[in-house]
Design a protein that fits this description.
Blueprint lengths: L1 E5 L2 E4 L4 E8 L8 E6 L6 E6 L7 E3 L7 E6 L4 E6 L8 E7 L16 E2 L3 E6 L1
Parallel strand pairs: 2-11
Antiparallel strand pairs: 1-3, 3-8, 4-5, 4-9, 5-6, 7-8, 9-10, 9-11
């Protein structure tokens, strides 16, 4: 399984960015997709995840609720992270991830994810 993330960049506080992650190597739809981020000197943290079920249930970190939206397009094998009202504390390397096995619930621990993209840098200036 390969994950290719893109869409990062340097923006000012209050701006928006949309990250994309394209998956290949296996069937896309029956797997949870998630975004994590890691700033220098910190642990990788869960940002958002989306289930593959018909209700497309989602889960967000408290720090991004109301500002970030995760979505997926199964036909394009792509998961998105729309980030609005960006803050300097959102600065990090953002990774997309997917678990090895299919499950309906969205995991929030990085240990539950087997496959990772290469990361895309998001830098928010104040």
């Amino acid at each position: 399984v390969q994950l290719q993330a893109s869409g990062g960049g340097l923006v000012q506080a209050g701006d928006s960015l949309r990250l994309s992650c394209v998956a290949s190597g296996r069937v896309f739809s029956p797997y949870v997709m998630a975004w994590f981020r890691q700033a220098p000197g910190t642990e990788r943290e869960f940002v958002a995840g989306i289930s593959w079920t018909s209700d497309g249930s989602t889960k967000y970190a408290d720090s991004v609720k109301g500002r970030f939206t995760i979505s997926r397009d199964n036909a394009r094998r792509t998961v998105y992270l729309q980030m609005n009202s960006l803050k300097p504390e959102d600065t990090a390397l953002y990774y997309c991830a997917t678990p090895q096995y299919s499950a309906t619930g969205v995991y929030t621990s990085f240990e539950d994810y087997r496959y990772w993209g290469q990361g895309t840098q998001v830098t928010v200036s104040s």
